[in-house]
Amino acid sequence: MTNDITLYTHPQSRGGIIRWMLEELEVPYEVIVLQYGEAMKTPEYLSLNPMGKVPTLVHNQRVITEAAAICIYLAEVFSDAGLAPQNDIERAKYYRWMFFSAGPVESAVVNKYIFGEQAGIDKQQMLGYGNYQLALDTLSGAVTSSPYIIGERFTAADVYIGSQLWWGLKFGTIEKREEYQKYVERLSERKAFKKAQLLDNALNIEMSET
Q1: Quick check: 128 pLDDT over 80?
Q2: Sign (positive/negative) of CA torsion 169, 171, 174, 177?
Q3: 5-81+193-208 and 88-190 in the same fold
């Protein structure tokens, strides 16, 4: 099977999650950078991602969107890298926390950042995350119970959740809890993380000069 991989991204986007994931896999890939605005709304790009957002990954003409889904897909397709769960015990934690972070945590953080005030007690039962503090308290349990999300082994779940926490801590959308900081510090020492950061930083510089 050929590995024709194209990542549509912007260096200041969730595309950085996928850049890190691809560097962990050590597979070749092409990067197409799209500026925010019209470049993401062309008919050609909307045929790949009707949301007009990044990241989008095209692998052997297969299109995958949504950062968590892309991470899961890549981990499974390139299983030799060992970033997918390898047994049912790992699988249960992996999917639980991956989707918890992509759903409740993402919604809680974005809603608080945009709207500020929490929903009233009578409305919280309608929200998948309940409230911001509950979502973060629950996530704290995931990053303190073991070195990595599924236990002693690094997986794609750490790429996704680690990116989410790294971004939130950097820009102040997530509380600077000690457990989050220790987890992110551990992940940020990985060679693939550092390389992905260098590549996206270089893109930022290039784009600012044009």
Answers
A1: no
A2: positive
A3: no
Between 1 and 4, whose confidence is greater? 4
CA–CA separation, 53 vs 37, rounded Å? Answer: 9
Asked whether 63 and 22 are in contact (CB, 8 A), the reply is no
Question: Phi-psi region for residue 42, left (φ > 0), alpha (ψ -120 to 50) or beta?
Answer: beta
Sheet bearing 30-33, strands edge to edge: 30-33, 5-9, 56-59, 62-65
Reading the block at residue 120, the tokens are 């009233």
Q: Which residues lie across from 146 on neighbouring strands? A: none
Name the CATH code of domain 5-81+193-208 (choices 3.30.70.100, 3.30.70.1170, 3.40.30.10, 3.30.70.890).
3.40.30.10
- Name the helix (H) or strand (E) containing 17: helix 15-25
Provide the whole-model pTM: 0.94
Query: Residue 65 corresponds to which tokens in the numbers above?
Result: 């969107």
> Rounded distance, CA 114 to CA 86, Å?
38
- What are the tens digits of pLDDT across the range 146-164? 999 999 999 999 999 999 9
Dump pLDDT digits (tens) for 168-207: 999 999 999 999 999 999 999 999 999 999 999 999 888 8
- Would you state the CATH architecture of domain 88-190? Up-down Bundle (1.20)
